[in-house]
Predict the 3D structure of the following.
Amino acid sequence: MSPHPLVTQLRFARSELQRGLEGVSEADAVKRIGMLNCLSWMVGHLANQEKAYWVVLAQGKSVVPGLNELVGHGKPASTPALADMWAAWHEITAAADVFLATLTPALLESHLERKGQLHPESVGTLLLRNIYHYWYHIGEAAAVRQALGHTNLPEFIGDMSQAVYRPE
């Protein structure tokens, strides 16, 4: 079974994050410019959202303990090691893909449940929020890299041959 088109778009956004951060050194990954978060934080922060939605909420599983405290929304700024954040991202996205592979139009209209309460946003809306969150931080990461003086950065959107439009 092919993944739902929105799952394909999430996977494309993930690949663009990787492409946009290719070649970043550990030293540059932890540099903060003004109030901007560092690049390694962005990787962990995106992983943390996927963990919250697709691993904890959707599957009731726990992976990468302590990540939310390090890179969660509203938490104090941190500068985690890039290698650690990529390792967390890979572990979490693999675990998330277990659930994402099951998505159907009907499931996208449903609401996940936590502690007996339905999440106010549907699975489909959470998926859109997740995709848009990636694009927000991909743009932010490009700006940080430019401010750090990095050159030959990826421009615009990469090869979309694996993420072409297809109807549901």
Q: What stands out?
A: The longest strand covers residues 113-114. The chain has a mean pLDDT of 95.
